[in-house]
Amino acid sequence: MAKNTLSSRFRKLDIDEFDENKFVDDHDEAVDNQGPDGAEIDNLIRQGDMMTAFHIALRNPPVITKNPAIKERALAIVLRVLTSFKSSDIEPAVKSLDRSGVDLLMKYIYRGFEKPSDNSSAILLQWHEKAFAVGGLGSIVRVLTARKTV
Amino acid sequence: MSLHQFLLEPITCHAWNRDRTQIAISPNNHEVHIYQKSGNQWVKSHELKEHNGHITGIDWAPKSDRIVTCGADRNAYVWSLKDGVWKPTLVILRINRAATFVKWSPLENKFAVGSGARLISVCYFESDNDWWVSKHIKKPIRSTVLSLDWHPNNVLLAAGSCDFKCRVFSAYIKEVEEKPGPTPWGSKMPFGAVLAEFGGAGGGGWVHSVSFSSSGNRLAWVSHDSTVTVVDGTKGSTPSQLKTEFLPLLSVLFISENSVVAAGHDCCPMLFRCDDGGSLTFVSKLDLPKASITRNISAMERFRNMDKRATTEDRNTALETLHQNSITQVSIYEGDQRDCRKFCTTGIDGAMTIWDFKVTDTHRHTETHTETHTETHTETHTETHTETHTHTRRHTRRHTHTHGDTHTHTETHSWSGSLISCHHIGIFLFFLK
């Protein structure tokens, strides 16, 4: 066997990075949102004001930043709010959102599906059903095609 | 509305001749088939075989009666009819990837080809050398060009591409035309200049189709993130985007200055309205599901089902829409872009359907036969004008909303034994004031 087949160091190279025609997305200069405020949300959940907690959780989504820590933190807060909802309250909460709000909610729901915990899947499926009723297939397509993800 | 099933192969693209007696289609292979209308049937009259790769675009110039085709073999041919035979002329596009789309300019002295080589080839005929020459528009296109549309002034070209953007370029060729006057999109138009760029910014999807309105002031495009966007060049450059709840649309067309028809993976054409303020609203789907009829399956049908599907049940797997698979192209059949009366759709199911569309100002109409009335649009748009009109309809519900109505008329015919089939003809009346 020839010697040059022994080394597999080349496998660690990402050849696409060296492609001169590589597509680089538009760089958004805007300062990104840092995600919802955890302490405020905790307060509201304790008080039982789920609607306000819901709306605040969906504010300031960290879509532009590439920092995974910020995204994880925001995701954890939103999932906490979503899982603390009662099933009967889900539909009015979804109805109170506008189109972009429903799209954002869908993004969080699918992110929540990625790492299922004990009882998150059941409640997330209910959220998904209600959000789908309002947003339709288009909202799911927008989750798939979005490059600015939560 | 009439559907004609050509073959079972998908129709990749189609083009009509001027008087709509002939249609050129590509059945998802290297050939173009031209069908001639004879009575109610379509008869194949010509086969254009020159390409080595799948045909990706066909356009038929109405006045000069020339066909231009482009394909995955990186070539384009201009076909002219000589002695009843279509003769091809090769056009050197100088691209190193497949061509994706081709369109004649309004004056038919040039055509533009979009390609996967991240550029647009604008070709014109050089009579000195007796051949077609191409000029490239490269910057700032970053990915495959999916769709093109010419502005009525024969110079501006809109391009939708896979880099999530829709752009307006100038394709001014000084050898074949005069300098154009200023337009709402800009006044300085050297070849290849970008006059406007929309979309992208970290969102959006591939722009599948673009369309200028008949005045050239409005530009509409559909994108893979299930959105339709319209921008009015005369009203500044903020596009009005509508996020739909449907699957992505693949083709868009202006059928009047205020109405846009789009169709795509939902297998159903949809109507959108663009009001004077430039904002876009969804009006309705133009393909209504057939009224359900209870059918008794005849013995003949049972045996046919056993033969075809190895089952005797009437398990219907057909879609409710006329087209059974995605619609890939919408084109004008009767009328022009200012006032279209009929438009045509072709799709992956190999069918070609012609749809009627009426814009009427008369608000009084009487229905003289029974109809099944279905409301297919949501009342979420705001009406700022008041109209007084009366409907007389023979059904129990009365309402006085002021926007479009859709009616379906169902007729049943029966022939040859015990087959019962049902056509439905839809006439769409829209009140646009």
Automatic annotation (TrEMBL), chain A:
Gene3D superfamilies: Actin-related protein 2/3 complex subunit 5. GO terms for biological process: Arp2/3 complex-mediated actin nucleation; regulation of actin filament polymerization. Keywords: Actin-binding, Cytoplasm, Cytoskeleton. One of its GO terms (molecular function) is actin binding. It is found in: Cytoplasm, Cytoskeleton. It comes from the Eukaryota. Pfam families: P16-Arc. One of its GO terms (cellular component) is Arp2/3 protein complex. The keyword Glycosyltransferase does not apply. Functions as component of the Arp2/3 complex which is involved in regulation of actin polymerization and together with an activating nucleation-promoting factor (NPF) mediates the formation of branched actin networks. Arp2/3 complex plays a critical role in the control of cell morphogenesis via the modulation of cell polarity development. Belongs to the ARPC5 family. PANTHER family: ARP2/3 COMPLEX 16 KD SUBUNIT P16-ARC. This is Actin-related protein 2/3 complex subunit 5. It comes from Oncorhynchus mykiss (Rainbow trout). The gene is ARPC5.
TrEMBL record, chain B:
The keyword Cell wall biogenesis/degradation does not apply. GO terms for cellular component: Arp2/3 protein complex; nucleus. SMART domains: WD40. One of its GO terms (biological process) is Arp2/3 complex-mediated actin nucleation. Belongs to the WD repeat ARPC1 family. GO terms for molecular function: actin filament binding. Residues 366-390, 402-412 have a biased composition (Basic and acidic residues). It comes from Oncorhynchus mykiss (Rainbow trout). This is Actin-related protein 2/3 complex subunit. Residues 366-413 are annotated as: Disordered. Its main location: cytoplasm. The lineage of its organism: Eukaryota, Metazoa, Chordata, Craniata, Vertebrata. Keywords: Actin-binding, Cytoplasm, Cytoskeleton, Nucleus, Repeat, WD repeat. It comes from the Eukaryota. PANTHER family: ACTIN-RELATED PROTEIN 2/3 COMPLEX SUBUNIT 1, ACTIN-RELATED PROTEIN 2_3 COMPLEX SUBUNIT 1A. WD repeats lie at residues 48-84.
